[in-house]
Amino acid sequence: MSKYILPVSVFGTVFGCAVLLKNHVTGGRCKSKATIHGKTVVITGANTGIGKETARELAKRGGRIIMGCRDLEKCEAAAKEIRGKTLNPHVYSCRLDLASLKSIRQFAERIKKEESRVDILINNAGVMRCPAWKTEDGFDMQFGVNHLGHFLLTNLLLDKLKESAPSRVINLTSLAHILGKIDFEDLNWENKKFDTKQAYCQSKLANVLFTRELAKRLQGTGVTVNAVHPGVVATELGRHTGLHQSQFSSSVLSPFFTLLVKSPELGAQPSVFLAVSEEMEGVTGQYYDVMTEKEPAPLALDDEVALRLWEVSSRLVGLKEDRQSQSEPAGSKQSNAVETHKPSPQTSPTAAASASALEKH
Ligand SMILES: NC(=O)c1ccc[n+]([C@@H]2O[C@H](COP(=O)([O-])OP(=O)(O)OC[C@H]3O[C@@H](n4cnc5c(N)ncnc54)[C@H](OP(=O)(O)O)[C@@H]3O)[C@@H](O)[C@H]2O)c1
């Protein structure tokens, strides 16, 4: 029995110290006290995890918050909770499925039509290590949601962001980007064996490359864009991983894991820091590891890859077509997706009612 005392007490001490020090080691809170009254924030995947806590913190700071989520019921439940807890009535739920180009276009149309400004866009939603699922448009789910969906959404909201300048775009990436490679020959895992980890890493590398290329294109517009790894945070992100899939790991390992990693509230602090802090004014094209600017992986610094990814992504989501059809005289070309989609807002009745009431103010 006594032979176990030493290792058990060493493990207990190390574990206890790790739990006590984790908040300090993992970055703490955003120190800025900046408020954002009069500013509009659009945040994706805000019904749970980091997104929900980011929405809550920015609502506390006085912003008008548009939460874009694929499940409107969950979204409205989260929005209602945030309105109640922060006493900020300007928190709205709106349907956005990043696995559908049509849904993204409808969401963007609605924002462009109904919102007078967009000051902060937080591309937060994410899916990690899911099976070889495809989006509605046939893209690999992780590449489609994490990269292409946000790529399209951001591009569609760029005019609004420019009109509202100085404005900020924040892209949630991950440290996992360092293991990523962009396989231009097979971005959607059609010709090789599917590797869900690698698919996640590819999508998160794409987030950093997109950030850097977009920052270049936005020079002089007053719109900044940065990418952030939020740290390791106890959220639902691991829902497709082993940790959540066996009885043993979900009941024994998962609680240990949760004790060692950041709460979603702390996990939201890096996004809040990038969105509001005074020291981020004018900073663009950078990668943040929690709240510290760091150099991303060498592949993420490759400007040619970033440009090529931009061009391929534009083609995949149909942005080039949009530009062409806009510059051609009406009727000279068959209308494409943008022209044919009538904006059809899909907010919950409560949110729609409160939104239209507030529009009048
Ligand atoms: N947690 C971490 O340790 C960690 C580390 C590094 C990076 N990140 C990044 O942080 C971001 C937030 O992740 P999280 O940890 O908060 O994960 P989470 O708790 O799983 O939240 C992800 C959010 O994204 C939404 N989402 C997924 N697919 C979507 C789609 N097709 N359309 C619209 N929304 C969709 C989810 O909606 P549903 O609830 O409906 O599924 C959910 O609201 C992600 O980009 C992730 O890659 C997290």
TrEMBL record:
Any Pfam family hit: adh_short
Top-level lineage group: Eukaryota
Signal peptide span: 1-16
EC number: 1.1.1.300
Keywords assigned: Lipid metabolism, NADP, Oxidoreductase, Signal
Pathways involved: Cofactor metabolism; retinol metabolism
Molecular function per GO: all-trans-retinol dehydrogenase (NADP+) activity
Catalysed reactions listed for this entry: all-trans-retinol + NADP(+) = all-trans-retinal + NADPH + H(+)
Region annotation Disordered: where it falls in the sequence: 319-361
Composition bias, Polar residues: 326-338
Biased composition (Low complexity): 343-361
NCBIfam families, per database record: PRK06197.1
Family per similarity comment: Belongs to the short-chain dehydrogenases/reductases (SDR) family.
Family annotation (PANTHER family): PHOSPHATIDYLINOSITOL-GLYCAN BIOSYNTHESIS CLASS F PROTEIN-RELATED, RETINOL DEHYDROGENASE 13
Name used for this protein in its record: NADP-retinol dehydrogenase
Organism: Periophthalmus magnuspinnatus
